[in-house]
């Protein structure tokens, strides 16, 4: 899997966030272009039992992040955040 510059930056942000949240919070970075092994980085994976290269939690049709990825982007929009993703 080729890392994009955005994923590299977000991995660094996750490292910083890990220092501010307790061990009962799971932080997950997904590459939604690869739903079969979307987890790029995970902190406190013991909560869900997931690890790097794990798939999305539910099928693509039930996954808000994946569904949002399939939407046509607005002109000039190349990426966006999905807040409240469960």
Please characterize this protein's 3D structure.
This protein is an alpha+beta fold and 86 residues long. Helices cover 24% and strands 10% of the residues. The chain has helices spanning 5-18, 64-70, and strands at 27-30, 39-43.
Short description:
The protein is an alpha+beta fold and 86 residues long. The chain has helices at residues 5-18, 64-70, and strands spanning 27-30, 39-43.
- Low-confidence segments, given as residue ranges, are none
Shape: globular
Strand content: 5-15%
Kindly report how far apart the N and C termini lie: 24 Å
Instruction: Give helix % range.
Output: 10-25%
Mean pLDDT: 81
* Number of E-type strands: 2
Put simply, the count of helices is 2
Radius of gyration: 13 Å
The assembly state of the depicted protein chains is single chain
The run of helices and strands is: HEEH
Helix vs. strand class: alpha+beta
Largest sheet, described in full?
A: 2 strands, antiparallel
């Amino acid at each position: 899997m080729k890392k994009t510059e955005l994923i590299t930056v977000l991995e660094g942000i996750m490292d910083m966030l890990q220092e501010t949240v307790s061990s009962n919070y799971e932080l997950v970075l997904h590459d939604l272009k690869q739903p079969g092994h979307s987890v790029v980085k995970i902190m406190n994976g013991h909560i869900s039992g997931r690890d790097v290269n794990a798939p999305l939690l539910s099928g693509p049709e039930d996954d808000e992040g994946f569904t949002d990825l399939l939407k046509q982007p607005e002109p000039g929009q190349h990426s966006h955040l999905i807040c409240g993703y469960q």
